[in-house]
Each structure stands twice: as structure tokens, then as C-alpha cells.
Amino acid sequence: MAAARLRSLPARALCRRCLGPLSLQRGYRGDSPGDSGTDLLEIPLPPWQERPHEPLPTKRARLLYESRKRGMLENCILLSLFAKENLNRMSEQQLNLYDRLINEPSNDWDIYYWATEAKPTPAEFESEVMAMLRDFAKNKKKEQRLRQPDLEYLFEPLH
Fold first, then answer.
1. Is 133:112 a contact under the CB 8 Å cutoff?
2. Is 16 left (phi over 0), alpha (psi -120 to 50) or beta?
3. Which residue, among 121, 50, 124, 136, has the nearest Cα to 86 in the 3D structure?
4. 110-140: string of b/e by CB count within 10 Å (b at 16+)?
5. Using alpha carbons only, what angle is made at residue 14 by residues 38 and 20, rounded to the nearest 5 degrees?
């Protein structure tokens, strides 16, 4: 319904400054820090929905996939390596927090900036999983992290 209403609007109505009282709950801004913001489009995204009845093996597999297939290479590398190291030992509650963290924000740069502490994490995303991701991003072991992990580790026996 919201998408049909949006399609019916003239193109100029989608401009951020023209939206006035109409505000979208979740959308991709596509802006950059030095941008004037006069020609930005708000692209509506479907709202994130928790999946409370999803079986844990399915949730882990989905989160692994979603950690690898991001909108930017930096997060593909960071989140896929984090997922490799942590998903199999996360509790159901931690998996739910991670799911929300990587899927509710509409801009992948936000997740990257929070993980690298370039920007403070908003209170609604601050959690033990966010703390784990921040700690992982510090790369205390000084590992070379230039690419996503190969998937062969999925077929190795668990220790």
C-alpha cells in the first residue's frame, strides 16, 4: 500500500526537502557527508521483521549469507569474518540481536561506522553483540583481513 502511494507521487515529491510532514520510517538516503542534500531521494525499504519461529540452523545459515552479501565491500569482509568466528557459538538471543543489527539499519555505512567507532552506536542498537562486533573490528590479533573467508570451514567437523 505504501509503495503504491509512493509510486503515485510526482517525482519531485520524493525530494527530501519536499517531503515536509510525510516522513518515511526506513529508507536509504544515499547521501554523503559533504552533500548539500538538495537532490536526495528517500527510497523506502520494507520494515525489518523479527523471525521468532525460525529454526536456529536456518537462522544461522541466513545470517551467514546476509553477513557475506552486503551493500559494500568493507562490511562484506568485516561481517563475514565476524560471522565465521561467532555465529556457531551465539545463543538464540544473540542471533536475534545480530539479525536486527545487520538488517534493521537502512544504511550499511552506519553499521560500519558503529563497528569501527567512527560514530557512536545509537542506544537501540547497543547490545552485547554490538560490543562483540566492535571488539572484533579492532583486530587485536592483527590478522590480515583482505577478503571474505572461503566457505570450506562450513564442512569441517566441529571441535
1. no
2. alpha
3. 136
4. ebbebbeeeeebeeebebebbebbeebbeee
5. 75
Of residues 66 and 143, more confidently modeled: 66
Nearest partner of 105 among 80, 136, 130, judged by Cα? 130
- Cα–Cα distance measured from residue 114 to residue 106, given in angstroms and rounded to the nearest whole number: 14
Q: What percent of the chain has pLDDT over 90?
A: 43
Picking from 70, 152, 50, the residue whose alpha carbon sits closest to that of residue 110 is 70
Q: Mean per-residue pLDDT for 60-72?
A: 89
**14 Cβ contact list (under 8 Å, min separation 6):** 6, 41, 42
Among candidate residues 2, 154, 3, 127, the one with its CA nearest the CA of residue 65: 154
151: closest CA among 81, 103, 92?
81
Backbone angles phi, psi at 49, to 5 degrees: -130, 130
- DSSP assignment letter at 44: E
pLDDT tens readout for residues 91-149: 999 999 999 999 998 888 999 999 999 999 999 999 999 999 999 999 877 777 766 77
Give the three cell numbers for residue 103: 538488517
